[in-house]
Amino acid sequence: MRYEKPQTVAEAARLLSAEKGLSRILAGGTDVLVQMKSGLIEPDLIVDIKALPGLRSIVAEAGGFRVGAAVAGAQLAEDRDLKKAWPGVVEAANLIGSTQVQGRCTMAGNLCNASPAADSVPALVAAGATVRIAGPGAARDVAVETIPAGPGKTTLKKGEFVTSIFLPARPARSADAYLRFIPRSEMDIAVAAAAVNLTLDAEGRVTAARVALGAVAPTVLLVEAAAAALIGSKLEEAALEKLSAACSAAAKPIDDKRGSVAYRKDVVGVLAKRAARIAYTRAGGKQ
Ligand SMILES: Cc1cc2nc3c(=O)[nH]c(=O)nc-3n(C[C@H](O)[C@H](O)[C@H](O)COP(=O)(O)OP(=O)(O)OC[C@H]3O[C@@H](n4cnc5c(N)ncnc54)[C@H](O)[C@@H]3O)c2cc1C
């Protein structure tokens, strides 16, 4: 196995493109090193992206935030402006693992590891975040939800990797929230999860909404019918019931010892309702 720590994005892309065998990016390593130690993967090439310029910083851009692909969870938590603008995204990323894991884990790694239960991904999708991809061709920006292709699989092509995640500017009276259910009190992966991102008008009516679900399908689900249920409402019970029903209907979960299909469908609807209430209050709405 070769370990490389390139100093430029172009060099990283060249290394990844030229490798004939199995290659992996090393960001925080909290997935990739566990997979190597347990014998699940044996990469021929490891490309550490932590020395690439700009990958460890959070920069204001066009009223939003560009978060480098090697920014760790703990660093997100310390950025007060980011936390104020996108509390749901930061709380989702900060649910990953423990204090030790937070010192290393990245949102880009969480996304590209492509676990259906990845905590930061529904929040990023609800936020309308995009990722910047570098590779052998020109850099391109795509919506976060286009990256996961199934458990452990992404749509990234040979030689491509994520250099940053962009969280857009927010209109006034906007906020987001993320909730997951885990059977244990911590250090567990989601059985179901929901993220809600809302914008309100001056009267507290929802004018824009995005709802994304985690752990209830092979990839994150952006549920347009759930968002539509909230638009025009002041989060009255009828709107919340419609939101919940739309989420339960959209969910296509697995059936295992951690939760049956019926249970996960039910729980995801409840979580979406609760996350909507939190986002609404954060955006300044009165219930
Ligand atoms: C004890 C423990 C608890 C955990 N708890 C949770 C939890 O509660 N919730 C949760 O969602 N996850 C959890 N995880 C999983 C893991 O911590 C997260 O998925 C984390 O965000 C991965 O980020 P990383 O930077 O460490 O990724 P890495 O391990 O460095 O990489 C993960 C994968 O993504 C690829 N990759 C990384 N960065 C990029 C990039 N920029 N472009 C393209 N591909 C890339 C790598 O090639 C690799 O396949 C836990 C892990 C541990 C060990």
Walk me through what this model shows.
The protein has 287 residues and is α+β, with helices and mostly antiparallel strands. The chain has two domains: 55-167, 2-Layer Sandwich (Uridine Diphospho-n-acetylenolpyruvylglucosamine Reductase, domain 3); 174-282, CO dehydrogenase flavoprotein, C-terminal domain (Enolase-like, domain 1). The protein has helices spanning 9-18, 32-37, 73-78, 80-85, 87-94, 99-102, 107-113, 120-126, 224-230, 237-250, 261-282, and strands spanning 2-4, 23-26, 45-48, 58-61, 64-68, 130-134, 140-143, 148-150, 153-154, 161-167, 174-181, 192-200, 206-214, 221-222. A five-stranded antiparallel β-sheet has the order 4-5-10-6-7. A four-stranded antiparallel β-sheet has the order 11-12-13-14, with helices on both faces. Strands 1-3-2 form a three-stranded parallel β-sheet, covered by helices on one side. Helix 9 packs antiparallel against helix 10 (237-250). It starts with a strand and ends in a 5-residue tail after the last helix. Bound molecules: flavin-adenine dinucleotide. Residues 24-32, 34, 49, 69, 95-97, 101, 104-106, 108-110, 112-113, 118-119, 156, 161-162, 187, 189 line the site of flavin-adenine dinucleotide.
